[in-house]
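Troubleshooting log. The previous run stalled partway through. Resubmitting the same two chains, unchanged.
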Amino acid sequence: MFIYVIGLAVMLGGGTLSLLCGKKSKAASLSGSISLAVSSAVLLTAIVLDFLLHQNSGMEKVFQIPIAVLGLAAAFFSPGYLAGHGEKRSSYYFFFLNLTLTAMFTLTLLKNPFLFLFSWEIMGLASAALVMFDMHSAKTQKAAFLYFVACHAGAAFLIAFFLFPYQSIHFALLALIGFGLKIGFPILHVWLPEAHPAAPAPVSAIMSGAMIELGFLGLFVFMPNNLPGYFAILLLFLGLLGALWGIIAALAQNNLKRLLAYSSMENMGICSIAFALALLAGQADLPMMRFMALSGAFLHIINHAFLKGGLFLGAGAVLKSCGTLEMDKMGGLMKKAPHTGTLFTLNAAGLSGLPPFNGFISEFLIYYAAFQGVLYGSGFLKALSTTSLIVLALTGGLAAAAMAKTIGGVFLGEPRTKEAAEAKEVTNVMKGSMYFLFILSLVTTGLIPFVFRMLSNPFAENLYRITLRLALFSLLTTLFIFVLLLLQNLFCKGGKRVSPTWDCGYARPDARMQYTPTAFTQPLVTLFAPVLKVVKHLVPPSGIFGKSASYEEKVKDPGMEYFWLALSSVCRKIADKIHFLQSGNLHIYIFIVLLFLAGMLFFAMLKK
Amino acid sequence: MCKNMDWIFFALSTAASLLLAPLSIGFINKTKAFFAGRKGVSIFQLYFDIFKLLKKEHIYSSSSTWILRAAPLASLGLLFGAFLFLPQGSFVSPLAFTGDVIFFFYLLGTSRFLTVLAALETGSSFEGMGASREVQFSALAEGTLFAILACLVFRCGEPALTAVLSKNCLQIQSLAFLAPILLVAGAFFLVLLCENCRVPFDDPETHLELTMIHEAMVLDYGGPDLAAIFYGAALKFYLFASFFVMLLMPGEFYGTWQGAVLSVAGVFFVSILTGIVESCMARSRFLKLPQLLTSSAVLAVIAIILQYFFQGGIE
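Second attempt completed without errors. Output:
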């Protein structure tokens, strides 16, 4: 515990020092990043030591590891990222970054509702300041405001929840909404796709990889033990809907970071499915399934932190190298920035849950848990597990499609614009922090079996065997592929030739002829058009020799369009109707107050 | 039977399957030639093609990097990996473990993902088009596939390939108990046609790039890479076909030499069946394909409900 306090003090102290440096941006960035790196490393060591020496395997570790790891990566990535992107405000940036991370880590150590809420609010406010970093853009201001409102609405629900502790088990719903706003449950998710693209890349990485998951921590710590029976089913429903909605919306995005934000919503949906399956298994007295689902969910949180962190840093690197996040304006970056490209590709494959990368193991455990539900559950649980299986599989397939879209659009093919053609690789330090995350994700794959071995749960032994097999087979498959490639190099003596892409006899293949990311997912977007709000703008070529034509497609979030905006227009109509009350006469106001108090009096008497 | 013998049998039958895989494509083509009233190419044609291609030079698109170069062999390697988990000619794989059924289908998924990326790497509009279609249909097929698995796993009591494929017990007397497995087999056959790019999903013999899916994705390959892709396609077909055959093979044949012969013969029977399907119908419009896949998912879900019903899962 003591070592945690030291780590957090260094983090906060470094942040404050950075703020004090003010205009001296070099010093600010140096003190901020060094203190962040040192404190994150200290915290990470403390977590590992705590686990190894004290056998302390509390579930808060699952949430602490992403914070420390992403903090470390952000410490190295940020100075390079800020160079040329508002480095003058380094002091401001590092102060709030360190403050956010401190608040996040403190949260995981707290059990007291008041202190928890206090930290929760600091985290929300400090991160809202970070989302505001690029403050001169109107879009960012809007996004930060939305995030700010979402944070506070969530806090309001949480305060209501903490004020009436355990009066009725149905109050758990308040917490579900309050924490759900952070996690990004469907409809409550609308701030996610706005705030993530607006924030600086390392901040998006932390918010997506470590912060939204804290909602699950909150649910874990403060949920009463006697949850109402419908709670697990509600959580499962939210998870299923969130996973599908997130990935379908992700498919339709053209902004790289927006797409990644929706993919976070999908992954949180998968985690919710796993947690709900664990709850259902607990109710049905299936300890093995419960353990599997829980392990799957926790592992998925860690995997998602590494992979999505890597992807957001990659997106930041892309923004640095070609100055835009619009995927339709990129292409061919793999040649200009091979390290970023390769890492992004591998991370994206991992996030789609494809073996031999680490994302697969957590998805495997969740699938396995669902299969257990199919086998041993009651009729109702069987039906729910089957639905989860089908939705998980569909989500997996669509996630692969979305990731293929990003990789293909950003890194493969030919550059579509001049900026993309002149893109450059980012600095070595920035590359290093991306490598750090990726290597860590690979190491996790290898370490997971042994972590299971150390757990005292009776089912951990079983999971140790399964995950060890998966890790080994993944390794062997990879080695086998390398051997095949080596053999090909040795024995295929036909020689090699490089020539332009074949394009049906066309004389000059051109970048404009290749498929754009929008075109790539157009069939899927059309297929799901009934649930997406697609705004199309088509100017067809006119005349016999039509020359100019354009097509623009914008996909709006159905949650925003059909729920929140509709709700706000209803509220506005009601407000218009009762506007006459606002007459400006003080005595009428006092009369209204009197009426209200009298009403409350009646209410109190009726209750008695 | 002692453990070592199992290894040997498995290795032998795997080797035999790996050798026989291109023959399955040969059978399809021969059937189609027969229906068209042609003499057709030899059923060994794919072997000749592969040998010829292996001797030729590699051609890489100038737009490409490591992905295009590594993809053909890497996806073949992943298919090999998946192949090793499949009970071969009714001999249990020594690698099999509970849950391998998920690993099996996800390895196939990675292999497809690589092919898609390599196609996008060329920057060709045809290949982009093919890749776009591939991800669309395979994502939908994935949903069906896991619905099928849910039914099979419930029926056989374990999420393992060996159990799923060996305990399917057509020998159970009740006709009603037979219905789910027949529905599942029907749904799986549609997935097989979709995943292997066969009519009505894709026409491997079309000569217009605009109408292709898989063929459009591999336009830019030549030489040994193309050989790997041809062989990979044959292997994938063999993989799905033997899954299908073992789904329907009566349980008592399992683990016997008759079973081994039957499963290989069954694969060629599936080839002929596919050839007949291809001869009798045209490729569907791409806009219609999601409907076809969704209906296969519906078949699988009906199978699940029936299965739950018969096994007393629904109170």
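Takeaways: Residues 21-31+43-248+257-310 of chain B form one domain. Chain B has a mean pLDDT of 87.
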